Amino acid sequence: MDSLNLGAAAPEIALLICACGILLADLFIPDSRRNLTYGLSLAALVLVSAICWVFFSNDIVQYAFGGMYVTDPMSNVLKIFSALCVGTMLVYAQGYARDRGIWKGEFFALALFCLLGIFVMISANNLLVIYLGLELQALSLYSLIALRRDDAKATEAAMKYFVLGALASGFLLYGMSMLYGATGSLDINEIARDIAAGDVASRAALVLGTVFIVAGLAFKLGVVPFHMWVPDVYHGAPTPVTLFIGSAPKLAAFAIAFRLLVEGLLNIAVDWQQMLIVLAVGSLVIGNLTAIAQTNLKRMLAYSTIAQMGFMLLAMLSGVVGGSMMATANAYSAALFYVITYALTTLGTFGIILLLARQGFEADEIADLRGLNKRSPWYAFLMLLMMFSLAGIPPTMGFYAKFVVLQALLGNGLTTGMVWLAIVAIVFSLIGAYYYLRVVKTMYFDEPVDTRPLVAAQDMRIALSVNGLAVIVLGIVPQYLLALCANAMIRTLGG
């Protein structure tokens, strides 16, 4: 553990070299040949995904940089799906980015550097490494949101995200400093050992630090009451960037929540579990009720994200009941399955929005979907699958994701508190189904205003179709993805 062991960080090193190479190569590539940069970016994502898959297949758990960095099965699964999210975003973004003048080298480079930050967050085993990854991701995202410099909404969204993001980073950093003061260590494993042995300078400092860490994590997940940035940023950012924010960074936020709360602070779970209950219930209530009032599709999906992350937190908090390691692994594998399911569904949802958008037209109002079934029955069907999945309607993967979370919530014994949490989750999921079904009604029963044919690149059409079919196929046969998540989590926890 004392050696550098650079091989454990092979995906990150390969991604860094590729991102820098693409950034330099793009200086010599004219706008007319920008597809070369696009192809190189996709090749880089395939390369790092292949490295992660080799690590996962070989059951490799390695530490690098003196134990500050860890490669384990959970991190490899999350990295593969994060790379998939970025690659899919690039495929979907083609027409939109070209029409708006952002199909440039910095778009690809910033996306890859943001992914690098996500990779660092996923594998961080040290508080400072988590913060470094977080800042690399955040600074890249700020730049991506403001990439359309002539768009006032995008600039405003970037400023809001920057200011509130700095506040959240301050919360997280202050919480980390309190943990360091209480335990004398920045290493997550050492922090866990010190807490388990009762070797802490001050339990009050430990609990206060945990409060600030949970607040910082809540901002990154976009849950109530730290959700104020989500609707404005989703609405103002260029749609491909909104797609990006709603997918890969959520996987990274789940990873650092797992590293800090489960691997580091599991012995004081009784303290942070109560906080997660408040965050989860508040997100389910505020997210679903506020989404009903939205007419803008991107803002509706923003509030939907808040509610979805609240549902994921239910699985996170259910893993500390009963003390059984197998029950813990089941709960966190359910949370992992849920966040991956949400990311895949989000890709398809925003992919349809990007398909409908054209130069000078954003297609971000629910009314813009009117009569989509008459314009293109296939893409209307794909959007229907995405809405059904977000609502948790069978046979989509979203239904099974909600089912395994509820199963984890109730699987450790029918305590009164857990039963009530399950009831709240079910009730507000039913309420949330209204605004998803409203989108379906608009597509199938309203008359179209725009009858022009939908134009998109062939690879975008193929990717959208595969994305939509995956949502229903993984709902009918979810056992493969669920087994992948369970296997990764059990091996990571050492169960």
Count of helix runs: 20
Low-pLDDT residue spans: none
- Give me the Rg, rounded: 22 Å
Which strand-content bin applies to the residues? under 5%
* Percent of residues in helices: over 70%
> What is the average of the pLDDT values?
88
Taken in chain order, the helices and strands follow as HHEEHHHHHHHHHHHHHHHHHH
Question: What gap, in angstroms, lies between the N and C termini?
Answer: 22 Å
Protein described:
By secondary structure, the chain is an all-alpha fold. The protein is 75% helix and 1% strand. Strands 1-2 form a two-stranded antiparallel ribbon. Strand 1 and strand 2 (69-71) form a beta hairpin. The longest helix is centred in the middle third of the chain and has 32 residues, at 152-183. The radius of gyration is 22 Å and the shape is globular. The relative contact order is 0.10. The model has no long low-confidence stretch (mean pLDDT 88).
What tags apply to this protein structure?
495 residues; mainly alpha; two-stranded antiparallel ribbon; 2 strands; 20 helices
Task: Provide a compact summary of the structure.
By secondary structure, the chain is mainly α. The protein is 75% helix and 1% strand.
Task: Give the SSE layout.
Layout lengths: L9 H16 L8 H24 L4 E3 L4 E3 L1 H27 L5 H19 L3 H19 L6 H32 L4 H9 L6 H19 L7 H8 L2 H7 L2 H17 L4 H24 L4 H22 L6 H32 L15 H4 L1 H15 L5 H14 L5 H30 L12 H19 L2 H15 L2
Antiparallel strand pairs: 1-2
Helix pairs in contact: 1-2, 1-4, 2-3, 2-4, 3-4, 3-10, 3-11, 3-14, 3-19, 3-20, 4-5, 4-11, 5-6, 6-8, 6-9, 7-11, 8-11, 8-12, 9-10, 9-13, 10-14, 11-14, 12-13, 12-18, 13-14, 13-17, 13-18, 14-16, 14-17, 14-19, 14-20, 16-18, 16-19, 17-19
